[in-house]
Amino acid sequence: MIRIFANTPLGIQKTVELAENQVHYLLHVMRQKEGDKLILFNGVDGEWQSVIGVLNKKRGSVQTEKQLRPQEAESRIILCPALIKKENMDLVLQKATELGVSEIFPLVTERTVVAKLNLVRAQSIVTEAAEQCERLTVPVVHEPVKLAELWSVLPTEIQVVCLAERGKSMGKIKGDFVPALCVGPEGGWTDKELALFERKGAKFWHFGHTILRAETASIVALACFQK
After folding, report:
1. 78-223: which CATH topology?
2. SS3 of 131, please?
3. pLDDT tens digits in sequence order for the chain, 227 residues long
4. What residue ranges of the chain are covered by domains with CATH 2.40.240.20?
């Protein structure tokens, strides 16, 4: 059944107005019609079976019928990937969502080739990924931040983890902490950046003897935190 993220409170017999892009998706892509069933979720109130009440070129609305799943607590995992080329960054956003990341802080590093991120597009990518993978929440994608400024935007209880070419092997993750996994760009971290991580008390982990591509490293690191 089609799942749609609703940025509004959900409850019994709640009428939800659809955004323009959602109307287009349901009407022209999925060929839905009034009376068809779908699922709504908002990251707070669980998952709701709903029915399309109005769907035409001008507007669309959906009415909730019954709750399918209550909201569940999720592990908090933060990903801080250096900005990389568009297609690879899209992959990171999609797979990070599927692997349960809660927040994404894109990084601008000394060797970053791409220095900008279309935040609206990025949030749309993670929303669509959450809809498709049956998550009950959608990750938050933050504005890109320079590596030196990362600690000022992260909560104090977060443990920064630097994924470096050399360091302690990831192995099985131990310890009760909220990680912020920092993944470098295609050219890797500079000595200056590695020294910054060390001064800030970051943990250093790596995956073994092979050097992973930036997008692969993000995916593998998040996979290590799966329960």
Report:
1. Alpha/beta knot (3.40.1280)
2. helix
3. 999 999 999 999 999 999 999 999 999 999 999 999 999 999 999 999 999 999 998 999 999 999 999 999 888 999 999 999 999 999 999 999 999 999 999 999 999 988 889 999 999 999 999 999 999 999 999 999 999 999 999 988 899 999 987 665 555 555 678 899 999 998 899 999 999 999 999 988 887 667 788 999 999 989 887 76
4. 3-69
126: phi then psi, degrees, rounded to nearest 5 = -70, -30
d(CA 147, CA 144): 9
Q: Return the structure tokens found at 48.
A: 């709701």
Domain 3-69 has CATH 3.30.300.130: no
- Neighbouring CB atoms inside 10 A of 38's CB total 17
